[in-house]
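Notes from hallway chat w/ T.B., transcribed later so I don't forget. T.B. wanted the structure written out for a chain they're using in a teaching module, and asked if we could keep both sequence and structure tokens in one place. Agreed to drop them here.
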Amino acid sequence: MNGLSTILIVVGLFLLGGIYSFAKQQMPKSLIVLLTIGAVMCLSAGVLRLDVWA
């Protein structure tokens, strides 16, 4: 399941890029908060699924 971890980390990083872009364009704060929550969930799930912690 290492591939799933990689996908989750890549999606999380993609969402972080979206947060930066939306903040730069003065988008609504609620959208930025939702993207932040999604990015944190994806990154944390991807990192926790890696086998380096076992």
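Follow-up for T.B.: Helices lie at 2-24, 29-49. Might be a good example for the class.
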